[in-house]
Design a protein that fits this description.
Length: 379
């Protein structure tokens, strides 16, 4: 069954406006729309689409939204559905970035940002830990020992050489593919390494490279964008302070749509509204291209031993990177009360199993209370 272009734009735009909570929420909303309510896809087709999108680098839930729109309206539907899913969060992120990244925001705004930012390290741990069982369960035998090594290398790289983390992710993937003699994957995944030299000069070229890493090389879930961006945005190019980066990550969690919108705030900090739009365009372009070009071959992709081998190496390294980023994120905190907020967030997320959005909002409220009480705020 095919839908009209107007229907795709309306329905996917609605999802883009209410899609708070990250990939689990996005998948549930897409299934409700496409399988349960409209009957555009069968249960099996939807499950196969999830599996195929999880084999692609980049934000899987965004690619799933684009793919579902492609299934019901072809290439035009993919473009309209993808834009409908992405644009509401993009607009919200630009507006919030203008407020939270202003040169002299009010104290209560600074407090909200400092509070929410303090909880981000706990979010990183929760995000990484949630990916461990599924990833580890997909490998067996000697591959499990290598899985542990890849995980450890990713954590170490995220905590020490953040800007070059992408090279490690690709290297782990290629190593695993080589060990399994799945050489066909090499050309398909090694190409971004050749572009790394283009980021050395800074400016818009560097911003585009950072956004490309986020959109084309974020193996292992949306939160892997944090270690991919932090070293570049804060240390290498100085677009943001540690505190501003924490704010950007928190905003990416509480705005609707994909977590990858964090790159929009980084782009805004680097070059204003134009930089935010450029970063978003570069980061989301691979998802559109992967689906538009590859959707007819998704069944072949799922059966490709080379792709699976590469992801069995890059995937655990990416999960390790997410966990390792928590160290750097926690080290960016400067006030004692922020560590108390971090501890409370860890309890909510890891012990009480509360949602990320609720946890970040409560952390922001705590920061506002500290600011209104005259407590110290990060510079």
């Amino acid at each position: 069954m095919r839908a009209s272009a107007g229907t795709v734009l309306r329905e996917w735009g609605r999802l883009g406006c209410i899609g708070f909570g990250g990939p689990p929420t996005h998948i549930a909303l897409l299934r409700q729309l496409c399988v349960a309510r409209r009957g555009w896809l069968s249960d099996r087709e939807f499950e196969d689409a999830i599996a195929a999108c999880n084999l692609l680098p980049g934000p899987a839930s965004t690619q799933l939204a684009i793919f579902c729109a492609w299934r019901v309206r072809g290439a035009l539907g993919a473009v309209l559905g993808g834009l409908g899913f992405v644009v509401p969060g993009l607009v919200a992120m630009l507006a919030l970035a203008a407020v939270f990244l202003a040169s002299s925001p009010p104290d209560w705004i600074r407090g909200a940002g400092a509070g929410a930012g303090a909880a981000v390290a706990a979010v990183a741990v929760q995000a990484g830990a949630s990916l461990v069982p599924g990833s580890y369960g997909r490998v067996s035998g000697a591959a499990r020992a290598r899985w542990v090594v890849y995980l450890g290398l990713g954590a170490l790289a995220a905590a020490t050489v953040g800007p070059w983390l992408v090279l490690l992710l690709v290297a782990c993937g290629l190593l695993e593919a080589g060990l399994r003699r799945a050489r066909a994957v090499v050309a398909g995944h090694a190409w971004p390494v050749l572009l790394a030299a283009g980021s050395a000069a800074g400016g818009l070229g560097a911003l585009a490279w950072v956004a490309l890493k986020v959109g084309a090389l974020s193996y292992g879930g949306g939160f892997v964008i944090v270690p991919l961006m932090q070293g570049d945005a804060v240390d290498r190019y100085g677009w943001m302070t540690d505190g501003q980066f924490l704010n950007a990550v928190a905003l990416g969690q509480v705005t609707p749509g994909p977590v990858i919108h964090t790159v929009t705030a980084v782009g805004y900090a680097a070059a204003g509204v134009g930089g935010g739009l450029l970063a978003a365009a570069v980061a989301f372009a691979p998802s559109f291209l992967f689906v538009l070009v590859g959707a007819p071959r998704f069944d072949e992709l799922r059966a490709n031993a080379g792709v699976r081998a590469f992801l069995d190496g890059a995937g655990p390294a990416a999960i390790g990177a997410i966990l390792g980023s928590a160290v750097v994120l926690a080290a960016a905190l400067s006030e004692a009360w922020q560590f108390a907020v971090l501890a409370g967030a860890a309890v909510l997320l890891l012990a009480a199993r509360r949602g990320v959005v609720l946890t970040l909002l409560l952390a922001a409220v705590a920061g506002v209370v500290v600011a209104l009480a005259g407590g110290p705020l990060p510079r």
